[in-house]
Amino acid sequence: MGTFVKVVLALVAIWIAFMVIGFVLKAVVTLAIIGAVITVGVVGYNAIKGSSRKQIR
User: Which of helix, strand or coil describes residue 54?
Assistant: First the structure.
């Protein structure tokens, strides 16, 4: 194989690697945002619900 073909294949491999890394990072950020929203919702729900609950003494 010629040098040009090797360079092109290396660039394609790097491009694919960056695509995969970008997809994974975007998925992780999206899941983190969803988790934060769910956590805030649960904490808020428990704060509202817990105010009317009586404590055991």
Answer: coil
To the question of pTM greater than 0.90 for the whole model, the response is no
Coil vs helix vs strand at 57: coil
33-42, long-range: CB < 8 A, 24+ apart:
none
User: pLDDT tens across 15-26, in order?
Assistant: 999 999 999 999
Q: How far is CA 3 from the centre of its chain?
A: 39
CB-based burial of residue 42 (10 Å sphere; 0-12 exposed, 13-18 middle, 19+ buried)?
Answer: exposed
Handedness of CA 25, 30, 34, 39 (dihedral sign): positive
**DSSP-derived 3-state class of residue 9:** helix
